Amino acid sequence: MFCRGSGNESPTGPCDSGFLCLGGASAPAPTDGVTGAPCPRGFYCPAGSYSAVPCPKGTFSERSGLGEQSECQRCSPGFYCAEPGLTAVSGPCLSGFFCLEGSPDVTPVAEGYGDLCPPGHYCENGTAAPAACPAGTHRPQTGGRGRQDCVTCPAGWFQDHTGQTECKPCPARFYCPSPHQEAGGVVTPVTCPQGYFCPGDAPLDSPVPCPRGTYSSTEGLSTADECWVCPAGHFCGSDGLTQPTGPCAAGFLCHIRAVVPNPVDDSTGSLCPPGAFCQAGIIAGECSPGYYCSGGSTSPEGVLCPAGFYCPKGSHTPFPCEAGTFSSAAGNSHRGNCTSCLAGFFCQGEGVVQPEICPSGHFCPPGTSLAQQFPCPPGTLLPLPGATSPEDCLLCPAGLFCALPGLSEPTGPCQEGFHCSPGSSSPNGTGITMQMESDEGSICPTGFYCPVGTSYPVPCPPGTFSSTPGLTRAEQCQPCPGGLWCGRAGMTQIADALLCEGRYVCVGGSVSPRPGDGIMGYLCPPGHSCPAGSALEVPCEAGTYSSSSGAANCSLCPAGTMCPSDGMQEPALCPLGHFCPVGTALPLPCPTGTLGQMAGAPSQASCSPCPTGHYCNSPGASQPQGRCEQGYFCQGGASSLAPQPSAELPQNGPCPTGHYCPPGTLSPLPCPTGTVRNLTGGVSIESCFSCPGGYYCDGEGLDTPSGPCDAGFYCPSDSSSTTPHTFMCTKGHFCPQGSPLPLPCPTGQYQPTAGSDSCIPCRPGFYCEQAVVGDPLACPPHTFCPAATMVPQPCPDGTFTPPGQGGLREERECLSCPPGRYCRAGQIKGVCAAGYLCVSGSSEFTPLERVLAEGEVCEWGVQCAGACPAGFYCEEGTERAMPCPDNTVRSSPGASSLSDCLPCPPTHWCREGGAVLHACPVGHYCDGVADYESGGRPGPRKCPVFTYRPTPSAGSKGDCHPCPPGTFCNSTGLSHYSGLLCPPGFWCSGSSPPVPCPAGTFRAQPGAADVTQCEPCDPGTYCPDPRATGVPNTAGIPCRASYQCPAGSAQETLCLAGFYCGPQTGEPPPCPLGYMCPQGSHTHSSPQQQCSFPFFCPVGSSAKLACPGGFMPVNSTGLRASLESSCVPCQAGTYRPALASVLQCQPCPPGYHCPAGAESPSSHPCPAGYFCPPGSASPLPCPPGFYGNRTNLEAVEECQTCPASTFNHLPAQTACFPCGSSATSVQGSSSCSCIGRKRAFQPSDGSCLCQTGFVFYNQLDFKSSSADSRLDCQPEVSKRCGGGEVRLASSQECVCVCVFR
């Protein structure tokens, strides 16, 4: 107040605003500093102030004289004012926060003053508005303090906007490289380069190279399937190729996807297939005739066909000349080049180069394939090799037999007792196969024997007989049987023999009834018996004996002795442990359980029982085997260490119950008092069990307890009780009869007295613990105790009792938990958590039950509590919910403070002061973020390029749909993509700019969604790489003449050799007959392309072809189009090499022969046995009497003459045949002369046989006409046939006419 002037009864009035009136002021605006002063800086002074009021927190004042609070200056944006009465700001806002105007705190979190720096932004010291993280970075958390807190997008991710909380994955067909520290993250994805692909299924920091076996010259691929497959004939040997590595190696065939120039996996390629040759990775043609290509061939002349084989055109392996044929020349091209095997020789198996001479015992007609294919039949033989027919086989000689086919000498002599005619195949005169005989061999009669060659049977001598015919020697006569004697010769049956006398032995062949010579028989020896007719002395059987010679019978062994073996001469004494009755062979052992302690015992009665405590388990024992086993009692006569009782020995066996038996005990020992054993077999005192619990045992040797323990007492199992009152039952327990231990009183019962057999129930309001001694305990607070309670039961959760209140008898005496609190175990545990409302009966700090409607009464036992309802917030321990203020929203329950009432949520925007949420408009998204980009006022934002939003309520940029493939959305805020199709010549993924169709493809219509919708360029046109031309491919460019453009061509390709290409050629036609088309031909009919003499041009020729080897050109009219019309084979006797400068066929040189079509004489050397003069078409044979043992003979004079004692009756032979031992010859002979007269030489086997009508006799005086010999032959004289007989022409023998009727 101020008092103007003097004499004032009251103050004049209040001091002016902006001034202080301290006292004694005479003016409303004092400035003297004593009575008053202007209001100081940092304060304001309303009218009538005697003290200054400080400017509140969040404001300051740099000037004095302020009169109202509104004149205090609000703290500057980016700064804070923490104290009242400030004259300047306190300082800049802390990094990680932004401060709006009037911030009272360095880290403001209150609405209207600032907040933590939002995600996607950073706030340095003194930030008034958050700065957005630049493109290429992101920040998902709040509180960014600087640019360094913006996280660079990692490899495989990018971000083309600022202020973002996350990065975008790199799209398909692009890659996002690893970030550089200086440059930051990727803002715009990089197009996938040539040779690589960039999938979109996982973020990539680098493109993935096209795998080996593929390549790509196009950018922007998204999958490995878009990489171009390596073409046939080429290989792609590394990853990331833009073109094939090169052509494949010669000798290999490359399919598609080859990764090496020499593939062998049979999938991408392989060795050149057999029968063909390969160059530059493709099949160049078939293997030439006369050669074979086994695989991997680089030339048509792979390997020369070997001798013994032939190789047609395209052979992958030589074909062997079949069995029965041969070929000695190499380079054969046809099956007809194989020659049939010569007569007298064989060609075994396939691929024969030179025939082998037919072996002895066999004959070989022309074409024979096996050495043993044609054997001479049984009954014949053939000693020399080289036979050609079955007529060369000879009859088996008389007296011998030839049993098998294919023999070169007889099998052996005829069997004894028989004679064999010529041609016999059996040793006994049967089985004759080659000729008939007039009579068969006669078998020797009984009583006789017939050696070899014998005419009459010889009688068996005395002492023998024979009942079997056909004997061959005296040794086969049977001796007179043992026990009989035969006194005369020629006996035929055993019935004629007589019995030998008793006491003698007739061994066999005996001629006397009492033989004593030791050969035919002898006197019966001691230890044996010999009855009449004995063939052998009989040893006395075991149990008998004979002490002198000549006994007919044996005597029984006396009692007490034994005769253990056959042939005993004296009895032996019976041994210890045994007894021997009369006639004992082996001593009988005393049985088990007994002992034999006396030698010479006559009966079992002499055996004594085993002593007590021991056992005798072995028969024939004289001493016990040991003491009986523990746990067993042996009364006497025990036969085992663990005996069992029997009727004779009832006490033997397991130790009886109530006892124990140590080893060898003489009697069972009783278990002591206080123990019991109810099992047999006790071994020691430890085997006796303590008396069982609840029972007593008052005597020795018990097998059951004496009785149960009395009621009120207990008998423990380990105390060996001897009385029914062992221990008295303790307090708090009860003991019924037979108790092993005191039993605690059961739940809710007690017993204050010892020695009881029952318990007393507990009363309500009290509890009785188990084994409690004394009176029941009162139920404590927070619990209740109904009747018979052992342990007090806690009040249920959600109820309580006051701390001093106890003795509750039932559950409903517990009180419901009060509002704002939660109760457990009968106690109030604390206040309910913030965000929850507890009305009554809550048992949880964070209850989840429903909240009752207002006005409803909560019943006892029901939890009336739950999360704070939506639209409200509930602080800790609140008793009622507080509503959220205006301009905020809480859509879910559980708000715990005013700060949980949130601003309008994303997908909506809220008008100022309104409570209604409005859906975000189409083409936009609403994320609710107030940032630099939104100017501090969150609202609808336009969807970015390549996206659209057709419906409202988008809450983030991610709710903007990516435009589908085939569209180009090149503006923001789109609500649809219709009319925005990808332009022609391009394809569009929808998420990136249009990509030109790759080289070799085009697109005429708009809307391509994938590179696969770019169509391959039409045949006859090509589509270049638009990156090189700068122009998209909307149609193909016509191909020029001399070039070919298959479908999908990216450039013109020079026309292939052997083809011609006019304008707009896709697949070129082959060059026609008679013309050649080199690479790059645009026509086929120019004069330079027509084939002229001496060349020819088949279809598809790229150059003129010369006539092959073995052919010469002919000058004919018309087109020279084929080998057949332009070349003729060389005539037989001439040849022409391939590529020869001389056009005519040349004469074949001497020493060689040239068949028609021969390319070289070296392929046809003159074979052994032949000679070839100049101009030979085929070899000429060396004549008979000569041979040729080497090749390349040029004239007949070079054939050699056969030496003396040899001959050659055939042409073309490589050696001469020997004359044999029965003939001779001079040099150069074609036949041999027999030494014996009247003999004819046989060239087939070199033998000399008698001429027809002549025979000879050998050293055995056997007649023969068909055997080889040096002996002279003489006219054959046959006996005159009798009446009714005729002579056989084959054998000259007389036979009865009756055999032919």
Tell me the radius of gyration. Answer: 68 Å
Q: Biggest sheet, in brief?
A: 3 strands, antiparallel
In whole angstroms, the N-to-C terminal distance is 189 Å
Number of strands: 119
Q: What integer is the average pLDDT?
A: 85
Residue stretches low in confidence (pLDDT < 50, at least 5 long) are 432-441
Helix proportion range? under 10%
Count of runs of 4 or more consecutive helical residues? 2
Strand order of the largest sheet: 116-115-117
Name the shape in a single word.
Answer: flat
Organism: Clupea harengus (Atlantic herring)
GO cellular component, one term: extracellular region
GO molecular function, one term: chitin binding
InterPro entries: Chitin-bd_dom, Tyr-kin_ephrin_A/B_rcpt-like
Describe the fold and architecture.
The protein has two helices and 119 strands. β31 and β32 (319-320) form a beta hairpin. It is 1% helix and 21% strand. It has 1301 residues and is mainly β. Mean pLDDT is 85; it is low at 432-441. The N and C termini lie far apart (189 Å). One of its GO terms (cellular component) is extracellular region.
List the keywords:
1% helix, 3-stranded antiparallel beta sheet, 2 helices
Summary, kept brief:
The protein is mostly beta strands and 1301 residues long. The chain is 1% helix and 21% strand. A three-stranded antiparallel β-sheet has the order 116-115-117, with no helix packed on it. It has a two-stranded antiparallel ribbon with strand order 1-2. A two-stranded antiparallel ribbon has the order 3-4.
Present the secondary structure layout.
Blueprint: E1 19-21, E2 36-38, E3 43-44, E4 53-54, E5 59-60, E6 73-74, E7 79-80, E8 91-92, E9 97-99, E10 114-116, E11 121-122, E12 131-132, E13 137-138, E14 151-152, E15 157-158, E16 168-169, E17 174-175, E18 190-191, E19 196-197, E20 208-209, E21 214-215, E22 228-229, E23 234-235, E24 246-247, E25 252-254, E26 269-271, E27 276-279, E28 282-286, E29 291-292, E30 303-304, E31 309-310, E32 319-320, E33 325-326, E34 339-340, E35 345-346, E36 356-357, E37 380-381, E38 394-395, E39 400-401, E40 412-413, E41 448-449, E42 458-459, E43 464-465, E44 478-479, E45 484-485, E46 498-499, E47 504-506, E48 521-523, E49 528-529, E50 538-539, E51 544-545, E52 555-556, E53 561-562, E54 572-573, E55 578-579, E56 588-589, E57 594-595, E58 608-609, E59 614-615, E60 626-627, E61 632-633, E62 653-654, E63 659-660, E64 669-670, E65 675-676, E66 689-690, E67 695-696, E68 707-708, E69 713-714, E70 727-728, E71 733-734, E72 743-744, E73 749-750, E74 760-761, E75 766-767, E76 777-778, E77 783-784, E78 793-794, E79 799-800, E80 815-816, ...
